[in-house]
Structure formats: C-alpha cells, structure tokens
Design goal:
Enzyme class: oxidoreductase
Shape: globular
Distance between the termini: 31 Å
GO molecular function: oxidoreductase activity
InterPro entries: AKR, AKR2_Oxidoreductase, NAD(P)_OxRdtase_dom_sf, NADP_OxRdtase_dom
Radius of gyration: 18 Å
Protein name: Aldo/keto reductase
CATH superfamily: NADP-dependent oxidoreductase domain
Structural class: alpha/beta
CATH class: Alpha Beta
CATH topology: TIM Barrel
Keywords: Oxidoreductase
Length: 327
C-alpha cells in the first residue's frame, strides 16, 4: 500500500481506502460480522482511512468502525459527515449548536475524542454561498473536536466555491470513468490550493465492475432501486447519474481496460489512482472478498498516456451526454 498526503494536512492516508455507506445501509442486505471481517482485512492490507457519515444506517457504520478500530484510533483515520440528519436547506442545521451536537454524537458512536476529518455532507449551493458553516467548523476546530474539515460536493461549481475558503482541506467528489469533468478545472485548482481529493462512487455504484446485466433486480432497500432516477437524493450518487441500462451498455465498450489488470473494477480504480490530484479513492464494500478485489487496484499496471487519451475521448463522445442531474 502507498500513502499520500491529504492536501496540506498532516494526514498521510492509504491511496486506496474505503467508504462505509454500504455496510451501514441502503445497499441491500448486510451482515455485521462480515462487515467487521471486511474492515479487518482492509486494515491488515495497509488501509488506514475510512469514510463514513452520521446517516449511514443512522449511525450504524460509525458504530461498526468504532468496534473495528478500537485500540487503533491513532493509526486508523476516520472521516465522517454531517447535515443530512436534518433539513439540509435550513440555516439552523448549520448553526454552531446543531453542528456541535452532530459532531459530539458522531464522536460518541465512533468512540473517539477528535475527528480526523469532518465533512459537510453535500449541502445545497446556497448554504455554501452563505459561508457561515465554515465559521462554525473553524470554531469546532478551535475547540479541538475536529482535526481538519472538508466538504462532500455534488458538482464542480460547489467544489470551486469551497476552494475559496482557506481552511477547507479536502473535497470529496463523484469521480470515475463515467464522471471525468473534475479533471478539467476542479482538480488543477484543488492542487494549486493544497486541497486533498477523495474520489467517491469510483465504480459508478457497481456498474464499473462489469458484473451486471440490464435485467438485474436490486433489493428494495438498495438505493440502486429506490434512487435509480434521483427520487430520494441527487441522481449522481446512483450509477454516477447514468441510467442503469445505458451504463450496462457503455461498460461493454470498456472491457478492454481489464487486460493485464485482472478485473474491470481494479482497472477502473487504477485509472482514478493515476490522476495526480487524487489523494485517495474510496470504493464501498459489504464483504471481505470485495475488499480483496478492490485492493488489487494498487498492484495492477498504470494506464499509458495513450490509454488515458482513449478513455477521455470515450467519455466525451459516448458518456457525458447521458449524465443526468447537475454535475
């Protein structure tokens, strides 16, 4: 495992880390013992960073991380998120008293005294424009409750706005072979500002594993069923904004990337790691087997300049026009 500095922070985190939405809920059936086993396998293989949120299983993923990392709090870094437990459009959700309460509840569930990275969880653009929430986070940082803070964003516009605030240390963005827009302006600007990039939805909710057929049926409590068209939250969080049927079709034209790289998924993750601005990529998982498979990405060959140009052209010609929702 290789480690990368998270922007201008003092955190050195594994280039391949993991997101814990799936083990918390909204991805179909889970098993806590299997989840804990998978977390242990990740750590045994050098993963020292996990991303979570207070709403993942109503705090369940935070509780699982507390169990898995007990006694290793100094070596395993955790990023969590807030605001989606309330009305994301209400200024009150971002008040000092409310954010402090969110923060303290996460600390309690995680069994920690300080959060390594605290992120606003995809807030509306008007909240970011208002900017008062950044002053609140400055206060929590001064109180010693958080080490660093960042923002999980839905669009490039939101990301660029966040970069105007000097204490933002990380941006979490939707970035994968089907969502390459951040490469154009956001990533260069983030690098210039010394802000780390956490790449989420890296496998387009599983599309980039190449395992699905167009008639696949997801469980009712899986967001790939209930948010397929953005019914519950931003459509970009599900299949990167591509319709499921179109995504299955597009993946067929990408199967060549697995040559010499074991799987389509390990190749897709490798492509993300090849982008200099990216600090870490955070695929999800529900089993130890999925963790092992994703970890293969750190060992497979990088993409050549010619291959990267081919993938960019594929995105611009075949994919971008099919992305739904703001991005």
């Amino acid at each position: 495992m290789k480690y990368r500095q998270l922007g201008n922070t003092d955190l050195k985190i594994s280039e391949l880390s993991f997101g814990t939405w799936a083990i918390g809920g909204s991805w179909g059936q889970t098993n806590d013992q299997e989840s804990l086993k998978a977390l242990e396998v990740a750590m045994e293989n050098g993963v020292n960073f996990f991303d979570t949120a207070d709403v993942y299983g109503n705090g369940h993923s935070e509780e699982l991380l507390a169990k898995a990392t007990k006694g290793r709090e100094d070596e395993i870094h955790i990023a969590t998120k807030f605001c989606r437990g309330g009305d994301i459009h209400s200024p009150e959700t971002y008040s000092i008293d409310q954010v402090r309460a969110y923060c303290e509840n996460s600390l309690k569930r995680l069994g920690r005294e300080r959060l390594d990275l605290y992120q606003i969880h995809c807030p509306p653009l008007d909240i970011l424009k208002d900017g008062k929430v950044f002053q609140v986070l400055d206060q929590l940082q001064a109180e010693g409750k958080i080490r660093h803070y960042g923002v999980s964003v839905e669009t490039v516009e939101e990301g660029l706005l966040c970069l105007e605030h000097s204490n933002v240390r990380a941006l979490q963005v939707i970035f994968n072979l089907f969502r390459q827009k951040p490469l154009e302006e956001l990533f260069p600007r983030a690098t210039e500002k010394g802000v780390g990039i956490i790449a989420r939805v890296p496998l387009a909710s599983g599309l980039l594993t190449g395992k699905f057929t167009s008639d696949h049926m997801f469980e009712k409590d899986d967001h790939r069923h209930f948010n397929r068209n953005g019914e519950s939250f931003n459509v970009g969080e599900t299949f990167g904004g591509i319709s499921f049927e179109k995504g299955v079709e597009l993946v067929k034209d990408l199967l060549w990337i697995e040559q010499g790289r074991k799987h389509v998924s390990s190749a897709a993750l490798r492509w993300i790691l090849d982008q200099d601005a990216v600090t870490t990529v955070i695929p999800g998982f529900k089993t130890a087997e999925q963790v092992q498979k994703n970890l293969e990405a750190v060992h497979v060959p990088p993409f050549t300049v010619e291959e990267q140009q081919k993938l960019l052209a594929f995105y611009q010609t075949n994919v971008e026009k099919h992305i739904r929702g703001p991005y």
